[in-house]
Amino acid sequence: MQDLYDYPVVIEVTVAWGEMDAFQHVNNAQFFRYFESARVQYFDNLKILDYMNNYARGPILASTNAKFLAPVKYPDTLSVGIRSVQLESGRITQEYAVWSHETSRLVAKGESLLVFFDYKAGRPCEIPPALAESILKLEPYLAEKASS
Predict the structure, then answer these.
(1) Closest Cα to residue 60, out of 124, 13, 120, 136?
(2) What SS3 state is found at 27?
(3) Could you read off the pLDDT of 3-41 as tens digits, one per residue?
(4) With contact defined as beta carbons under 8 Å apart, do 69 and 115 qualify?
(5) Which helix H or strand E contains 96, and what residues bound it?
(6) From the CA atom positions of the chain, what is the Rg in Å?
């Protein structure tokens, strides 16, 4: 699980029996919940939810996808990593990786696009500079990508 070091935010998820489907593995839709839980932790680390409450601006999920690499079965614990791979003026592209503790392998990958949104005006907006600064502090390599 060395690749976990590439992700600034990693959460641990215990697989529940009820997440399995008729094919005796975790239902594919459940992985989007794992991604969501990692994304919420990422937001918590940056205090984005506080910012949304104070200024009515914040990210909204525009799209997401997943690639399933291996089945996951109960019982298992998963490590779910999240990182931003592109920071633009009003959007963030993020990647997810899910590792199984039981099988010691990468079992799923995903990506999402978040658009920053002004909830009062009802339209997309720029990422506020203070928030962009916080993201770059958590993930300094994004500044290098933007300048190249």
Answers:
(1) 124
(2) coil
(3) 788 999 999 999 999 999 999 999 999 999 999 999 999
(4) no
(5) strand 91-100
(6) 16
Question: CB neighbours of 51 closer than 8 A, spacing ≥ 6?
Answer: 57, 58, 128, 131
CATH of the domain at 74: 3.10.129.10
Tens of pLDDT, residue by residue over 122-147, are 999 999 898 999 999 999 999 876 55
Put simply, whether the predicted model's pTM sits higher than 0.90 gets the answer yes
* 3-state SS assignment for residue 126: coil
Say how many domains are in the chain. Answer: 1
pLDDT of residue 2 exceeding 60, the answer is no
- Residue 110 structural domain: 2-147
Sign of CA dihedral 16, 101, 61, 55: positive
- Do residues 82 and 98 lie in contact, with contact meaning Cβ atoms separated by under 8 Å? no
Q: What is the pLDDT of residue 147?
A: 52
| Both tokens assigned to 137 | 């502090």
The pLDDT assigned to 110 comes to: 98
Write the Ramachandran bin of 35: left for phi over 0, alpha for psi from -120 to 50, otherwise beta: alpha
